[in-house]
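Module 6 notes. Inverse folding takes a fixed backbone as the condition and produces residue identities as the prediction. Think of it as a translation problem where the source language is geometry and the target language is the twenty amino acids. Below is one complete input and output pair. Work through it position by position during the lab.
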């Protein structure tokens, strides 16, 4: 991942804003409780966490990423946004990390994954790993590439071929896996295609 992002991190947000659709909608839907906590798994450049920090001015912010290169950019963005005192970042594997060890905090009010699962080979393990980190009343929010189900077939073929060049694999089984994780963890499940299936949005909520 560091080899991939060593150069890309400098232009990542400028280019991705045109096709990582639904991220701002996800952030708007987080609505953490007053003084709540937000964890982003696969925080990349820190773009989403900075926007969440500005929108939710009393939230504590946490982020993990497996790429040290991306975290360098994230720390710079956090500093420029004057959010250093409210945010903690750490390098970690999304499918196997201990938030207590990393941050001294075992649970979070909101957890988000934005175009992350399509880049994590053990994505099912990642999903199964996260419900235990939800605080009572907490929620897990996901947005990622869909299956382009209501878009032209040629568009899907071209997009998937292009994504494959960057080792990005849209997860066709995401809705089924989310439902299974929800059932096993006793969580409420919601799923919604966005932009004619270009993106998929899923939410798991604890009582």
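Target side of the pair, the amino acids:
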């Amino acid at each position: 991942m560091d080899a991939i992002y060593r150069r890309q991190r400098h232009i990542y947000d400028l280019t991705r804003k045109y096709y990582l659709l639904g991220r701002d909608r996800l952030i708007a839907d987080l609505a953490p409780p007053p003084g709540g906590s937000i964890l982003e798994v696969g925080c990349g450049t820190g773009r989403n966490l900075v926007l969440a920090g500005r929108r939710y001015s009393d939230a504590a912010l946490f982020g993990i990423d497996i790429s040290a290169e991306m975290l360098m950019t994230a720390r710079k963005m956090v500093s420029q946004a004057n959010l250093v005192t409210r945010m903690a970042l750490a390098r970690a594997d999304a499918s196997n990390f201990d938030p207590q060890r990393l941050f001294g905090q075992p649970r979070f009010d909101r957890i988000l994954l934005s175009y992350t699962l399509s880049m994590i080979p053990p994505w099912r393990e990642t999903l199964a790993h996260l419900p235990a980190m939800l605080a009572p009343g907490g929620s897990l929010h996901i947005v990622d590439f869909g299956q382009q189900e209501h878009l032209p077939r040629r568009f899907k073929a071209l997009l998937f071929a292009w994504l494959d060049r960057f080792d990005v694999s849209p997860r066709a089984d995401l809705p089924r896996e989310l439902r299974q994780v929800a059932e096993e963890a006793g969580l409420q499940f919601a799923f919604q295609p966005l932009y004619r299936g270009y993106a998929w949005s899923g939410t798991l909520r604890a009582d």
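Reference fact for the lab report: The mean pLDDT is 91.
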